[in-house]
């Protein structure tokens, strides 16, 4: 069933909004960004989150200790890695979390696709990623940029999409419907388009939830 992630929550009001709707994942950004939250803010916000909503920590080349500490305290349940983290880093992160908590932290590995076609052989890359230790992948144009990338590069409706891909990058109420129909991803992930003046906007989130709801069965 299609999942929905709303990223970049940073206020109690944002948590109150997501708690009202059928939302599966939320993101706390720990990287340099106007949406950045501190450890203490995330701790406070995560404690207010409805139990069935999964908090994801979004990181760019972060020290493993911070990620493992957040996971150990239950502030995040998944790590989304948006920097240059390679297979060794991810294996190490999983090993450290296993050692300290008894569970391997699930990882969403971000693949940035820009319109200069940085992945010419996208299908070959998909095969490579399939063998990775990451649990999921997020396809994004940047880091919460609000911009779409060239969807024609993607391998439409593959099993891999259905099971492992968070589709992100400039999704909004205008293009979400066609993105879901075209790619049938595991999840859709939005941030910029559900904000007004840099803050999460309940009406915009509600509109997105209603679109996603049509594809849940
Ligand atoms: O949102 C950010 O500020 C951010 C910072 C660093 C890494 C990732 C970030 N955001 C991620 O980008 C997607 C897509 O955002 P958008 O819809 O294009 O604005 C978002 O869901 C976050 O996972």
Automatic annotation (TrEMBL):
The keyword Amino-acid biosynthesis applies. GO terms for biological process: L-tryptophan biosynthetic process. Residues 4-210 form the N-(5'phosphoribosyl) anthranilate isomerase (PRAI) domain. InterPro entries: Aldolase_TIM, PRAI_dom, RibuloseP-bd_barrel, TrpF_fam. It catalyses: N-(5-phospho-beta-D-ribosyl)anthranilate = 1-(2-carboxyphenylamino)-1-deoxy-D-ribulose 5-phosphate. Coiled coil: none annotated. The keyword Amino-acid biosynthesis applies. It is an enzyme of class 5 (isomerase). Gene3D superfamilies: Aldolase class I (3.20.20.70). Belongs to the TrpF family. HAMAP family: PRAI. This is N-(5'-phosphoribosyl)anthranilate isomerase. It comes from Methanobrevibacter ruminantium (strain ATCC 35063 / DSM 1093 / JCM 13430 / OCM 146 / M1) (Methanobacterium ruminantium).
């Amino acid at each position: 069933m299609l999942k929905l992630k709303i990223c970049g929550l940073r206020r109690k009001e944002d948590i109150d909004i997501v708690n009202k709707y059928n939302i599966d994942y939320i993101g706390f950004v720990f990287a340099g960004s106007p949406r950045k939250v501190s450890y203490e803010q995330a701790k406070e916000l995560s404690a207010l989150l409805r139990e069935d909503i999964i908090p994801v920590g979004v990181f760019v080349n972060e020290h493993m200790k911070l990620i493992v500490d957040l996971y150990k305290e239950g502030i995040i349940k998944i790590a989304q890695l948006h920097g240059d983290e390679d297979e060794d880093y991810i294996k190490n992160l999983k090993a450290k979390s296993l050692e300290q908590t008894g569970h391997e932290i699930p990882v969403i590995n971000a693949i940035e696709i820009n319109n200069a076609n940085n992945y010419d052989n996208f299908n070959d890359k998909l095969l490579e990623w399939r063998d990775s230790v990451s649990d999921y992948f997020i396809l994004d144009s940047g880091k919460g940029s609000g911009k779409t990338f060239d969807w024609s590069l993607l391998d439409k409706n593959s099993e891999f999409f259905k099971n492992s891909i968070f589709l992100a990058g400039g999704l909004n109420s205008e293009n979400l419907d066609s993105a879901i129909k075209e790619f049938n991803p595991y999840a859709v992930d939005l941030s910029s388009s559900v904000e007004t003046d840099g803050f999460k906007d309940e009406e915009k989130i509600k509109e997105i939830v209603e679109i996603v709801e049509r594809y849940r069965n």
